[in-house]
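Contributing new records

If you add data, match the layout below exactly. Sequence lines come first and carry their own label; structure lines follow with theirs. Keep one chain per record. Anything else will be rejected by the validation script.
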Amino acid sequence: MRRNSVILLFRLFWIFIVRRVLGRGLLSSAAVRTSALVLVVTAFAGFNLLSYVVLKQYLGGTGLFEPVLQVANASVPFWVLIAYTLIRVLFMKADELLKLSFNLPVTNKERTLAFSLFEASIVLGMTIFVFGAFSISTVLIEGLEYVPKVLASIWFPALSAYLLLSLGYYVLERVLMALRWARFRGLVVPMVLATGLALLFPHTNEQSALIAQSFVDGKDYVTPVLVFAILEDTVGFWLSAVAFVTTTAVVIPVVVAFAPKAYVPLRRYFVVLPSRLADRKLGAYVLVLFRSFETMVAVLFVVVYSLFAWAQHIVLPPFALLLVTFQGVYAYANSEPLRRSSLHPGRTMTNYLCIVGSQGILLLTLAIPVVTISLVQGIAWDACLPVAGFCVSNILISTLVGIAFPPEKGNPFTVLIGVLLTVVVIMIVALGLNVFNLEPTMSAVVYTALSILVVFYSILGMKRMERISRHEVVT
């Protein structure tokens, strides 16, 4: 395996993604790119300031940073798995990105390692966004002597967890290839990842509780997750760093060894509804939505979490339904062939209602069994109604994100950036409403007005995209 080829492919993937991200949707405008960068940097700086103020107020001078770091250490695998699941599911459709290297003189193992490095850099970036503020605040409050503790408690476990997840994924892919199920990994892999998240969440909470209880009892709690932190505390940072480097040096060749020698295309969709639904316009949109890869993944996650809640007797409102609404960012792009293939695509308002209506049908289809499970477990109807409101609102917002930041094959980052910017704006609005301490009725009025604004900008964006499409056809 040639190291130069791996580095070259790694750079090629990043150049491709950056150029495609900066040239699509609203991000094609220099003003929007600058505003987005300023907004993200400001949000990250705000998180750092908020983290510093909170930690300084509640933990400064108390000597509690040691157990807090251990609790954060116990939660690192869970957060890395969340980031890995998001990136892995998004890149399962990134055929165009991989096709860049199909005509280059590289082996599939070199391609796999380059893509793993590319994927690792993204997961690391997301981990920095999650734990960066906590790490920086801890060092600022406790001093530079806490840098080794933060590295051993947060960043060594994060990188090791990613390597183990990559190894597990390639082992699973090898098994699927041996069983001739490689084309169905779009169905199997999300189910395995969703199950892993469902199992790891209660385990993480249990570990955190045991760490806190051990600190109260004056005992040392030992678990494999804390191995680097324990080494740093008992034998020193450098031996902990040597252990991390040694582990990495052992796992990476194993990952490369298990990497498949050939690429097997992913099966795009499964027929779950009769094609006769296409006789109606709304039915055609429903078919496109139900057959899309993103819908399949979202439904799998909802099913897994609902069954897990049922088996573990977790009594909560049906919040799992929110997961299926996030596929709305792909609803506009996936239904684009319907409008392009028609001589008379229809009015923009009608097309928008079909896009949103098909998502409403999907939500209602899933809500019947999921809400039934919640009601059987003892959840009242009143507790389910706010979830329905959040789901409808999220459908409208995710549809707007998909219009303003249209996704495409091989480029999932435009959607990620759009979702990130939307989350930042929503958090700012929610924080503002919390600061003003408005009555629930007034808050509902504000959210309704914002939803109407979202619908307005969605239709406006669709009209703009349709006008651009007509001009492209003419030229």
